[in-house]
Design a protein that fits this description.
EC 4.1.3.27, single chain, Anthranilate synthase, about 30% strand, 2 domains, transaminase activity, 18-stranded antiparallel beta sheet, transferase, Rossmann fold, alpha+beta
C-alpha cells in the first residue's frame, strides 16, 4: 500500500487526506521544504542527538511524506470499525516501573540532576488481521470517542503505521508567530473532585516546571521570548490536563525551530540536556517515535514558512507483521510516588488502548464542574505569584535601568538553558548580552585569551576533554552550511572570545558543584576565581552561586528535600522577595556577614537552616534562586537592584541595618 496520512486537527469538521512519496533523511536540515509541496515528517526521539544530547540510539528513521496530492473528506467517511488485539501487557511490570521511579527520585532529583524527568514504559500486543485496516478502524474510533485532541492521525509510511490522538501541540509557526503549548498535570476523569486536583501542589508545580522549560525554548526561537497565556483545562475523554499557551515572534527556518525545541519537557524533563542523560541511564533502550513529533512543513499564501508539530504521545505503532507498541510515560517530580506514577501510565494509555479494543472504554463525565466559577477561579489563581515579565506585553525600553543601559554582559551556560530566559531579562533591563556555553568559555581560558590550561592546574586534560557532550566549533553544529551560527540564535548565543565584558554571569546547570572530577565544575570554578582575582563584576546564579559561595569559604550541603521547582518568599537583604528555586544543593553560612580575601560579604540566609539565598560583596553577587524563572515573581526587581551595585562595586546599605 502506498504511503498516506489522515489528519484531523483541533476544531476541524473534516479529515485531511495526504498521499505522496516517502523518503528517509538523516537530519532535520534534510527535510524537504518546497513551496507548493508540503512535507509531513515523522521525527523519532533519536534525532535529539542533533543537539548533542544523549540517547540510546535504536536507529529509528526520520521518514518524510513528500505530499503530491491532498484533499479533505467529512468525518463521517471514517466510521469506527471492528478490530481485534490479543496478548496485551506492559514490557515493565508495575513493580519494575515503580522501582525505576524510586531510583530516579532518590538518585537523580535528590542529587541535583534536575527538576523533573519522564520515564516511559510500553504496552505491547498483537493486532489480528491486516495492520493498516486495524489502524483505520482505530482512527475511526478515536474520531468518534476521543475529545480534546490537538491532532487525531493515521500515518502509514510503508514500513510502519502510527495511529493516535495527541493532546499536545509541541510547536507551530504561522504568520510569523511561533507557539508552544505545555500541558501537564493529569486528572483521571471521574476519580474525584476536579477542584482538589487543581489545588494539588504536585500537579501545580509539575505544570510550572514544564512552563519554565518551554519558556527556555521560546527564549531561543523567538526574538523577545515567549508571552504566556492561560492556564486552561485540556479535557479529554479519559483525562483532564492543565495547559499554558506560549507565543512569540520569530524568523528562524522552521527546521531550526524544530531542532532548537527538541523535545518537549513534558516527555523528557528539565533541564533538557541532563534529562536526556537520565532517560538513557534509566530506560536503557530506545524510544522509537515516542516523545518525537509529527511535523507538517509548508508555506502560506505569502510564501512564508509554516509548521504544525504535535508531540507523538497517546500513539500506537503497528509493524507490518501486526506487532503493536503503545509507549506511555509519567513525569517524576519531588512529590511523586511510585504508586501514583504507575497509575498515571495506565490512565494515559487508556484512550488509545480503548480505541484498539485492548481495554474497556469509559464515557466522559459531565463537564459542569469544569465550567464552575470555583474551577475558573482556581485556574486564574495559579498566576497570582508568577513573574509578570512573562505574562504581560510592554513597549520596547519600558524596563530599561539607566545604570545598565549600554553595558555588556556575558552569560556562561552551565548546561541549563534558563540562561536564554535570563538573557531576555537582561536585555530588557538595557544590557547587551552574549551567551557562551561553559565548554567554549573553558576553551578560551578565564580571560578569553584562548589559554585553556589556566582552567586546569593539574594539566590532566586538553580543552576538548572538558566537553563530554561532543560540542565543538559552531560549524560542527551546522554541517549543511546553510546559515551562519548567529542566525540560529536570536538570544545572542556566541562562541568564546568575549568573556571580558562589563559583567560576567556564571550561570545555572545541573550536577554536584563539589565534584572534583567533573570538568564542568572545574571550568566554572576557574572562571569565577579569575573574575574575583581580577576584581571584575560578577553575578553568579544557582550553580554559579554555589561555586562562588564555596570559593568564599562557605560549606556546600545537599538538601534533605530538593528545592526543585519550589517558589518561596525569602528575606533578601531586608526586603521580602518571592523567588523560584531549582536546586538540590545549598551553601550554609553561620552568620549574616563574612570576611573574605575579596572583601566583606553580606549574606541573606534562611534563619531556619542557615541556607544562603543570596550574597553580595564589592563587585560581585550570587543568588541561589532563578530570577529568570516564571516562579520568581520578584526576579526582575532583584536583578534591577543587584546589578547596578555589582557594576559599581558599591553595596547599598541593607534595609534591615
Amino acid at each position: 500500500m502506498r504511503p498516506f496520512a489522515l489528519l484531523h486537527r483541533d476544531g476541524a469538521d473534516h479529515v485531511e487526506v495526504l498521499t505522496g512519496d516517502m523518503i528517509t533523511v538523516p537530519a532535520l536540515d534534510d527535510i524537504p521544504l518546497h513551496r507548493g509541496r508540503p512535507t509531513l515528517a515523522v521525527i523519532p526521539y533519536r534525532q535529539i542527538t542533533e543537539r548533542g544530547f544523549d540517547c540510546v540510539d535504536d536507529g529509528a528513521p526520520l521518514e518524510c511524506l513528500v505530499v503530491r496530492s491532498s484533499h479533505t473528506e467529512p468525518l463521517a467517511a471514517f466510521p469506527p470499525g471492528p478490530l481485534s488485539v490479543s496478548g496485551g501487557g506492559f514490557d515493565l511490570t508495575d513493580d519494575e516501573y515503580g522501582t525505576i521511579v524510586e531510583d530516579v527520585l532518590r538518585d537523580e532529583i535528590g542529587h541535583g540532576e534536575g527538576a523533573n524527568f519522564v520515564i516511559h514504559r510500553v504496552f505491547t500486543a498483537t493486532v489480528d488481521g491486516d495492520p493498516v485496516a486495524a489502524a483505520r478502524a482505530a482512527f475511526g474510533r478515536l474520531l468518534a470517542s476521543e475529545q480534546g485532541t490537538y491532532w487525531t492521525f493515521l500515518v502509514h509510511t510503508g514500513t510502519r503505521t502510527l495511529v493516535g490522538a495527541t493532546p499536545e501541540r509541541h510547536v507551530s509557526v504561522a504568520d510569523g508567530i511561533t507557539m508552544m503549548n505545555p500541558i501537564s498535570g493529569t486528572f483521571r476523569n471521574g476519580s474525584g473532585r476536579l477542584l482538589d486536583f487543581l489545588r494539588d501542589p504536585k500537579e501545580i508545580e509539575e505544570l510550572y516546571m514544564v512552563l519554565d522549560e518551554e519558556l527556555k525554548m521560546m527564549a531561543t526561537v523567538a526574538e523577545q521570548g515567549g508571552q504566556v497565556a492561560g492556564p486552561c483545562l485540556k479535557q479529554m475523554t479519559h483525562l483532564t490536563h492543565t495547559e499554558y499557551l506560549l507565543a512569540g515572534r520569530g524568523s528562524l527556518d522552521v527546521r531550526d525551530v524544530l531542532r532548537e525545541t527538541m523535545f518537549a519537557p513534558t516527555v523528557t524533563g528539565s533541564p533538557i540536556e541532563n534529562a536526556c542523560r537520565v532517560i538513557a541511564r534509566h530506560e536503557g533502550r530506545g524510544r522509537g517515535y515516542y516523545a518525537g513529533v509529527l511535523a507538517l512543513l509548508d508555506h502560506d499564501d505569502q510564501g512564508r514558512q509554516t509548521l504544525d508539530a504535535p508531540i507523538l504521545i497517546r500513539t500506537a505503532e503497528i509493524s507490518p507483521e501486526g506487532a503493536l507498541r503503545v509507549p506511555v510515560g509519567a513525569t517524576l517530580v519531588r512529590h511523586s510516588t511510585a504508586a501514583g506514577e504507575v497509575a498515571e501510565t495506565h490512565t494515559k494509555a487508556a484512550g488509545v488502548l480503548a480505541a484498539l479494543g485492548a481495554v474497556p472504554s469509559r464515557p466522559s463525565p459531565a463537564r459542569a464542574e469544569a465550567e464552575s466559577p470555583e474551577v475558573r477561579a482556581a485556574l486564574a489563581a495559579r498566576n497570582d505569584d508568577l513573574a509578570r515579565f512573562w505574562l504581560d506585553s510592554r513597549a520596547p525600553g519600558a524596563l530599561t535601568v539607566p545604570a545598565l543601559a549600554g553595558r555588556t554582559a556575558v552569560i556562561v551556560d552551565g548546561e541549563d538553558t534558563f540562561t536564554a530566559m535570563l538573557a531576555h531579562q537582561l536585555k530588557a533591563l538595557g544590557l547587551t548580552v552574549t551567551l557562551v556555553p561553559w565548554a567554549a568559555a573553558a576553551a578560551a581560558g578565564p580571560t578569553g585569551d584562548g589559554e585553556p590550561d589556566a582552567l586546569d592546574p593539574t594539566g590532566r586534560r586538553e580543552p576538548d576533554a572538558l566537553n563530554p557532550t561532543g560540542h565543538r566549533e559552531p560549524d560542527a553544529l551546522n554541517p549543511t552550511g546553510r546559515r551562519e551560527p548567529d542566525a540560529l540564535d536570536p538570544t545572542g548565543r556566541r562562541e568564546a572570545g568575549a568573556l571580558d565584558a562589563d559583567l560576567l554571569i556564571a550561570g545555572p546547570g545541573p550536577g554536584d558543584p563539589g565534584d572534583p572530577a567533573d570538568p564542568k565544575m572545574a571550568a566554572m570554578r576557574a572562571l569565577v576565581t579569575a573574575r574575583l582575582v581580577a576584581r571584575k563584576p560578577l553575578l553568579a546564579v544557582c550553580l554559579g552561586h554555589q561555586i562562588l559561595a564555596s570559593l568564599l569559604g562557605l560549606r556546600l550541603h545537599r538538601r534533605d528535600s530538593p528545592y526543585q521547582g519550589l517558589a518561596r518568599e525569602v528575606d533578601l537583604f531586608g526586603t521580602p522577595r518571592r523567588v523560584g528555586f531549582y536546586s538540590s544543593f545549598a551553601a550554609l553560612a553561620p552568620a549574616a556577614d563574612l570576611d573574605t580575601p575579596y572583601g566583606r560579604v553580606e549574606i541573606a540566609r534562611d534563619p531556619a537552616d542557615s541556607a544562603v539565598h543570596a550574597l553580595r560583596g564589592p563587585g560581585f553577587a550570587g543568588v541561589q534562586f532563578h530570577p529568570e524563572s516564571v516562579l520568581s515573581r520578584d526576579g526582575l526587581a532583584v536583578l534591577a537592584e543587584l546589578l547596578p551595585e555589582v557594576l559599581s562595586g558599591v553595596i547599598s546599605p541593607a534595609t534591615n541595618g
